[in-house]
Structure formats: structure tokens, C-alpha cells
Specification:
Number of helices: 2
CATH topology: YaeB-like fold
Oligomer: single chain
Distance between the termini: 33 Å
Helix content: 10-25%
Radius of gyration: 13 Å
Structural class: alpha+beta
CATH architecture: 2-Layer Sandwich
């Protein structure tokens, strides 16, 4: 188990990178929120929910957009694997 003072690394899937390129207005907020999550993945003030039926998979809401990510404790990693608008993210 990682120390509670270790900062997690953030890795994004190429679909998230492409989404951020298409929506540059969300990029500063994206990095601000994920920096908070990297410092304290389980105790922060971001709008996060655990995905039903999944262990260590979460949803972060930033305005009308949603980002899905997984916390991988043994690698001290937050892997952001999808991002889209509210209506399209869960399809």
C-alpha cells in the first residue's frame, strides 16, 4: 500500500488526449482537478463518484463533461481512460 503522502502519477489514454485537444476550454480545469486527485485520490473536494460494479473506477464531473478513471494503487497511478459529454460518456 502506498504511503498516504505519495503523489500519484497521472496517465491519460489517447482518446482523452484527443478529447482535450477538441475542447481546449476544459484543459485547465481538467489538470487542476486531477492534480488535486493525484495528491489525495480518496479524500478531496472534486465531484467524484464510484462507478457501479467496478472496483477502483471513478467518474469525475467537470461542468458538462465526465472523465472516467481508475486508481491503480500498486503502481501509484491514476489512469484516465475516457472523457466525453454527460450524454455520451456511458455509451
Amino acid at each position: 500500500m502506498p504511503s498516504k503522502f505519495m503523489k500519484y502519477r497521472i496517465k491519460t489514454h489517447k482518446t482523452v488526449d484527443k478529447f482535450l485537444q477538441r475542447h481546449p476550454e476544459v484543459v485547465p480545469r481538467f489538470f487542476k482537478h486531477f492534480e488535486k486527485i493525484a495528491e489525495s485520490p480518496f479524500f478531496n473536494t472534486c465531484d467524484i463518484k464510484l462507478l457501479m460494479g467496478e472496483k477502483n473506477h471513478y467518474r469525475l464531473r467537470i461542468g458538462k463533461y465526465r472523465f472516467l478513471y481508475e486508481i491503480i494503487d500498486d503502481q501509484i497511478l491514476i489512469y484516465v481512460y475516457d472523457g466525453d459529454s454527460r450524454g455520451d460518456i456511458y455509451k
